[in-house]
Design a protein that fits this description.
six-stranded mixed β-sheet; four-stranded antiparallel β-sheet; 14 strands; binds adenosine-5'-triphosphate
Length: about 325
């Protein structure tokens, strides 16, 4: 197997903060690799080191076989980077932004223009092409950002939280774009705080917390680590909730959780599903949803770290475990 990205023992400190505490990564060529972690986990720092923007204090890394420090120039010719924060010039139009980058990359004026036009069309920005980027919506800006990182036809693409702040539809569109790129052979390293995003796109996920990889595997492997599945039942009539809770408790032998109008309960035996259907039918409870699903990556994160992915616990503290 060839690896588009390899990192060994990356350490990076900022004063007293250790942003990377010894990170190893191996990303097979032509795959999407997800770096998943909460705020401050070290995701952006890892991307910046791999994209030659920041030197590591210890360890080494290669991209496309080139050392990110010794052969930074070569690495830069292979990669594209869409940063966490918009990098396009707000005062330029979509076309002008892409033309500028094309010219910086050494394309002729006509090649740069053709590339800009094609990318704007691919990203459904043709209608907005001649408007200043500051007039774009958040989703349009993210698309322009991504288009900008593709002008040079990168073999390896770094996407740092590409869908943060996007609505579900824009997020889905961006996911499709990433899938198309990978189908064309591009390797993608994606950072995200969204467990679902890593699940949707990545073949392999490294879970990062406090600058360390605390777990790695396919989405399925990570989910399997929490063991078992979750049964979710949503009655059509919310007044049936107590009945559903009682039936679920009886069938599974475990106390369920109720969130809004859905009852969830961990199960280890798939036979509970038909048993549940029979008992609910006998109790004349109509259900809007009845599903057996794998544990979500949120549940995985909680079981791996002891805290939820949304929480931003500063390094070295353990506030949520201090008894009240
Ligand atoms: N230039 C810097 N100077 C000082 N500290 C920094 C710098 N860059 C990052 N850090 C610190 O390093 C740690 C990791 O930051 P990083 O930006 O890599 O996290 P992240 O996983 O990208 O988080 P987020 O999801 O919020 O983007 C944080 O504690 C951050 O405050
Ligand atoms: Mg970041």
């Amino acid at each position: 197997m060839t690896y588009a990205i390899r990192a060994e023992g990356l350490v990076r400190r900022f004063g007293a903060t250790t942003a990377l505490a010894g990170v190893d990564l191996a990303v097979p060529t032509g795959t999407v690799f997800g770096l998943l972690g909460p705020n401050g986990a070290g995701k952006t720092t890892a991307v910046r080191v791999l994209a030659t923007l920041l030197a590591a204090d210890e360890g080494h890394a290669t991209v496309g076989g080139y050392d990110v420090r010794r052969d930074a120039h070569r690495v830069r010719q292979l990669i594209g980077l869409t940063g966490q924060y918009a990098s396009v010039d707000e005062n330029l139009t979509g076309t002008e932004n892409l033309l500028l980058i094309g010219r910086l990359l050494g394309l002729s004026r006509s090649d740069a223009r053709a590339r800009a036009r094609a990318l704007l069309a691919d990203f459904q920005l043709t209608d907005a092409a001649e408007r200043a980027a500051k007039t774009y919506s958040g989703g349009m800006r993210r698309r322009l950002d991504l288009a900008a990182s593709l002008v040079g036809r990168p073999q390896v693409l770094f996407l740092d939280e590409p869908t943060t702040g996007l609505d579900p539809r824009s997020r889905n569109e961006l996911w499709d774009i990433v899938r198309d790129l990978v189908a064309d052979g591009v390797t993608v390293l994606l950072t995200t705080q969204y467990l679902e995003e890593a699940d949707q796109l990545a073949g392999e996920i490294a879970v990062v917390d406090h600058g360390r990889v605390i777990a790695q595997g396919t989405p399925e492997e990570l989910k399997a680590r929490t063991g078992g599945q979750v049964l979710a039942v949503r009655p059509t009539d919310p007044t049936d909730l107590p009945t559903v809770v009682a039936v679920a408790t009886e069938v599974t032998g475990t106390a369920p959780e109720v969130a809004q109008t859905t009852v969830t309960v961990p199960v280890n035996d798939p036979d509970v599903l038909p048993a549940m259907v029979r008992r609910l039918d006998a109790a004349e409870v109509a259900v809007a949803e009845l599903a057996l699903r794998g544990a979500s990556l949120d549940e995985v994160f909680l079981s791996l770290t002891g805290h939820r992915a949304e929480q931003d616990a500063p390094a070295g503290t353990d506030l949520e475990r201090i008894p009240a």
